[in-house]
Amino acid sequence: MFDLNLKNYGYFQLLACIALNVFGLIFIQSSLGDRVYSFMSQLSISIASLAVCIFISFLNMKKLSKSYWLAFIVCVITLLIVQIVGTAYGRNSIRWIRIPFVNMEVQPSEFAKILLILFMSKYIEKQDTQINDIRNLLRVLFLFFIPFILIFIQPNLSSSLILLFIFVCMLFASKLRTSWFFIFGGIGLVFILIVYASVRFGFIDRMPLLRDYQKNRIISFFEPTEKNEAQFQQENSVIAIGSGKLLGKGINNDLSNSVKNGNWLAEEQNDFIFAIVGEEVGFVGSTIIILLYIYLIISCIVTASKQREYYKNLICIGVAAWIAVQTFINIGVATSLVPNTGVPLPFFSQGGSSLLSIYIGIGFVLNIRREETI
Amino acid sequence: MDIIVYIIKQIFSGENYKNNIIGFFSILAMLALIVRLFDLQIIKGNYYEENYVQKSVKTVTIPAARGNIYDVDGNILAYNELVKNITIADIDAYKQNNHDINERNKMLLELAKILEKYKCNIASRYFIDMDENGKFYFTTTSEKQHRSFIANIYGRLVTDLDEGRNFQYRSDLTPKEAFEYSKHRYAMDFITDDDGNPIIISDRTMLDMVSIHYTMRLTSYQKYQPTTIAENVSDRCASEILENIGLLKGVDIEETSSRRYNYAIYFAHIIGYVGRTSEDRIDELKETNPQYDINDKVGLVGIEKSMEHYLCGTKGYRKIVVDSSGKILETLEEQESKAGADVYLSIKATDQIANYNLLEQRLAGIIASKIVNKDVSNVKLSSSRMEISAHDAYYHLIDNHVLDKDHFESPDAKQAEKEIYRLFLEARERAKEIIYKNLMDENPEIQRNLSNTAQNLTAYVYTYLHTHNDILMSDAIDRDVEEYIRWKEDDISLRDFLTKAIEETWIDSTKIYASERYGDRDTIYNSLVLYIMSILEDNEEFDMLVYKFAIKEKYITNRLLIMALFEQGFLPWSDVEYDKISKATDEYMYTYFIRLVRDMVLKPSDLALDPYAGSIVVTNVNTGKVKALVTYPSYDNNLIYVKGYMESLMTNKSYPLVSCTTQTQLAPGSAFKPITALASLEEKVITKDQLVNCNGIFDEIDPPIKCWAYPYEHGDLNLVDAISNSCNVAFAKYGHLLSFDEEQNYSTDTGLRVIQKYCRLFGLDTKSGIEIEELSPTISYTDPERSAMGQGTHAYNNVQLAKYTVALANGGKLYDLSILDKVVDKQGNVLFTSEPKFVHDLNISEESLNTVYEGMRKMITDGIARFIFASQGIQILGKTGTAQERNDRTNHATFVSFAPMHAPEIAVNVVIPFGYSSGNAAALANRVYNYMYGVTSFEEILNKGTDDIKSISVSE
């Protein structure tokens, strides 16, 4: 089961994750203030997740990879359970399952990301170059589509799109010919143009598949004159970040003109955590954090490139893509580059499922790195 | 340039070029973020810092103006008035550290002090209050509410109560314990001033502070949502709050509207009042109208409740953008509220006021004429002959809280009050001596031979032992034992009875602190005596008994009591008057007292002597629309939320909150006879001319029924005469005849079935149909002969009798009655018109109806009530009724009637519970007709005294 080969262990990678996690906790504590209970809960989950991560990094990948279908099954089943007995916790979509006895909530859509990465990496590897055959390609797409649609109908557009992005990156890194990408890229571009046109020319209301709040967010992004709650959140976030200037207002500050000392951002400890970051540690602090993310992403990709076994490559690419896209979207929303959508910042945002699943992902990357053959 | 080309080549070639591409774009994206941050924080940093405005979107509900209520002519009865409320909200001004919490508590202290200064009622959901003695008590009204409240005190869920290993969240807290817990939880048990010295706060103020804070936390689900903590405060109070607004963080003044009622006393039971209600009711209302919120004031009783959905209107909302101090930056969206629709009653205000006055005058007149200056024993007297002893009337001054007896012992009591208190204490000592003597005497007198007072005192001891704490165990008593039988016949002394009771172990000696449970009889008896003497201390019931006997024996004279009325401010102070009475004789004071009653300075509702209640219903017989719906006594629904008012209403023994018209179910007595008459004719058990003989007693059943004329007899009567004489024997006979089936077999069920059928025909099986709360009627289910007379187990209220009278009057159509005319919205559109609610045709032959009409007319012109209607020009048809309920109290007086004879227009129904004789009801109805037909004017009625009203006996 375990291989204790420590020669190539990715200490710095792990350190980067822990650093981001710790910074995350600091900012969460700052925003929560006296809500000690929530903070302690996040702290304990952090420690537990770290433990899981390290544990996974010592498993035997060869044996583990044989049960890649299990990952897929667990993924689909947990998502189905959400459909049946899931709860919404007061939001407008059903995304969580409540575990009895332990009184904890899990969000399967977060775990779907790592589970899909694990499954797809091996599955695509098995396809090898046959993936270019339209029949095989469709099979792959179909398998992807199952968890994708289950997340989409929660409704959870943001998570499903992230899943899509990760998947596309993995496909890109696979033996699939690039020409396919131009085709899909073209379709995607057309889609975005349609969305933009629908806002511009006013027929977004008739767009199918999108819920009202999602339409509102898109509209508020493209047409800033239409004011609503979501847009104010972004405005407030931008002001908060901007006012941090170079060095920020200080962590745990008690100033009245501080975004957390008011009722301005709903759940700033989740999706708008970067507003707190930008305000409290300014440009310097924010950039350092982004550099940490860059380091993580690159180190995952470097690890990927060093793999001889193809599925390991894909796993690392998947994790890298995951971190990249979520970081970009989360900070992009907080700085109003991207329409308002709720996506957790990896290692940072409060939320057990998000934290645990990304730690698991890193755990696998560490494991792969440890077993480097080159 | 070359370097860039080189790097790009490196990236896009090679084995892992795809990975590199992904990496490249990822870094690009991250760099984009850094650039963006640079833009926001460095380039625009200063701008954002200076223009730091955190905006948020809030939706504010705009309340809807409640619809008004009018009488039929458009006189306004209920409307909205602008008032100022004090609100409090959690604006996050106080953090969770010791210093801030102390500041917050100091703020609450200031607030509580201001509220106390202006005597503001705190709209608290903290269900604990304090009585004048400083004792805490719960004000929860149901088990569910209580548990929920206790859970909230802990800050837990109801399911957490009594759970857990250590039972740390007990649900069985005493009020004091709960209060202490809250105090501690809010850190209010140690509040310090600026120098760090602890501030001493009274329990009362502390309770207010806890109440305010608890209520705020309970009803504001999110921060910044204000909770109303005091309503309708004076302008001065509001100003003081605003002056101190810097200190009182989170407190604000809100202008809102409050409900006001005109002609309150006359319409209180009809209109009702508004207020906050339970979650269950809000959920119910939400089903048809989702706009309701737990903080809303909705109709709780009366028309306010039944027409809630018309009156409430539609709330509006405003979506605003506010900055961090709550300042409104812009309005995004607004929808105006829509005012509620106005409700018009079918009742005329002047009719209501006039009839109320007529009723009060009648009751006052009856009482005044019944109070006699001697000791009365009503046992074995016929109802109409019963009287009220003057001393009983004086006693009621104390019993019904006209005089505040607690004030007699207060340090600022005045001369007569002090004297009364002194005499009371003496009397109490004497009473205790009497009891003690009776218990300890070697050869005590038997009950019967004791003075009346002594009898009452010893009887009290017996009742006490028997009803409190089960000392004298009713289940253990063997009712065949001689001593018990003798006690019931007053043929034994208390001492002998109790001794026997101990012997027979009917006494639970464990409860009287006997040192040895199995001690001998005498030891236990002595312990019992000690116990009895101890329960006479601090005993409200016993004190009242002492007052009763002190007044009866004239230790406390009527003069002293009336002087106390002046001293306590019940009577407006006048040196001349006061001086006069302090020197007057008892006889003079009696007359003075009667004058107070006749002038309605002491109202029937103040004294709570029989009769203290009454009802008049006037209806249009062709539509079922009610023109007047009067009940006495009544209350002022403007004062419902004034501290102490509701309590005073509930302790008033004339029960002002109970509507005599809709919530007092009585047997109608002879007023029911027209129905029996019609039933007999229609079922053909009797014809118009058939004679029935009354020899004073109907003995075909057991127990026999005596006619009211007994020992005289009516002789032979036909149906018309039976009605006009209201002969009991005749009607018992009719009821009896109805109980024979086709095979001539007698069965009470047969008779009852017929009677019930006709009751249902006249709508007596359902409520009257008026649009406010009402108790359900009961059609008699026993004894067809007595039921035929209107006794048995019938129970109807006056408005149900009115429904039957209307059907009788209009010649055969049953209508449900209505007090509504129409509902009109603010734009003038009629939303609802109350059409006559036809139920069914009676299908009774015209001949039968005419026969009964003849009888009812003859009753007025020639019958037992003729002298009441002697000079009445209007052709009234009526039937008197006297219903007996208890033989130690007077009978109820009823009168059903309509007029004019050949083309009936209105029905007048009068009920006076415990009204001595139906003559009183008839006489009142007579005056009602005089008013309704303009013979007496409105002004005349308002100015009229009661000098010409006395209790009228109609032998019946």
Summarize the structure.
The complex is a heterodimer of chains A (374) and B (956). Chain A is mainly alpha-helical. Chain A is 66% helix and 2% strand.
Structural write-up:
In chain A, 66% of the residues lie in helices and 2% in strands. Chain A is an all-alpha fold and 374 residues long. Chain A has one domain. A two-stranded antiparallel sheet of chain A has the order 1-2. In chain A, a hairpin with a 4-residue loop joins strand 1 and strand 2 (104-106). The longest helix of chain A has 33 residues, at 273-305. The radius of gyration of chain A is 21 Å and the shape is globular. The two termini of chain A are 22 Å apart. The model of chain A has no long low-confidence stretch (mean pLDDT 81). With 956 residues, chain B is an alpha+beta fold. Among the domains of chain B are: 2-50, no CATH class; 54-75 and 262-342, Penicillin-binding protein 2a (Domain 2), CATH 3.90.1310.10; 89-257, no CATH class; 415-550, no CATH class; 667-867, DD-peptidase/beta-lactamase superfamily (Beta-lactamase). Chain B is 41% helix and 14% strand. Chain B is built from 34 helices and 27 strands. In chain B, strands 2, 3, 6, 7, 12, 22 and 23 form a seven-stranded mixed β-sheet that branches. A five-stranded antiparallel β-sheet of chain B has the order 16-15-27-26-25, sandwiched between helices. In chain B, a hairpin with a 6-residue loop joins strand 18 and strand 19. In chain B, helix 15 (415-440) packs across helix 20. Chain B starts with a helix and ends in a 13-residue tail after the last helix. The model of chain B has no long low-confidence stretch (mean pLDDT 89). The interface between A and B is large, with 51 and 43 residues.
Please outline the helices and strands:
The complex is a heterodimer of chains A (374) and B (956).
Chain A: H1 11-32, H2 36-56, H3 61-65, H4 68-85, E1 97-99, E2 104-106, H5 108-127, H6 134-152, H7 157-173, H8 178-200, H9 212-222, H10 229-242, H11 273-305, H12 310-334, H13 352-370
Helix pairs in contact in A: 1-2, 1-11, 2-13, 4-5, 4-6, 5-6, 5-7, 5-12, 5-13, 6-7, 7-12, 10-11, 11-12, 12-13
Chain B: H1 2-12, H2 17-43, H3 45-50, E1 56-62, E2 69-70, E3 76-88, H4 98-117, E4 128-130, E5 136-138, H5 143-154, H6 175-185, H7 203-219, E6 227-230, H8 235-243, E7 251-261, H9 264-271, E8 274-275, H10 279-288, E9 298-299, H11 302-306, H12 308-311, E10 316-322, E11 328-335, E12 342-345, H13 349-370, E13 371-372, E14 388-389, H14 390-399, H15 415-440, H16 452-467, H17 482-488, H18 494-503, H19 521-535, H20 540-552, H21 558-567, H22 575-582, H23 586-598, H24 604-607, E15 614-620, E16 626-632, H25 645-651, H26 673-682, E17 692-694, E18 697-698, E19 705-706, E20 715-717, H27 719-725, H28 728-737, H29 748-761, H30 784-788, H31 798-809, E21 813-816, E22 820-824, E23 830-833, E24 837-841, H32 846-861, E25 877-883, E26 892-899, E27 906-912, H33 918-932, H34 938-943
Parallel strand pairs in B: 2-12, 13-14
Antiparallel strand pairs in B: 1-10, 2-3, 3-6, 3-7, 4-5, 8-9, 10-11, 12-22, 15-16, 15-27, 17-20, 18-19, 21-24, 22-23, 25-26, 26-27
Helix pairs in contact in B: 4-7, 13-23, 13-33, 14-20, 15-16, 15-20, 15-21, 18-19, 26-28, 26-29, 26-32, 27-32
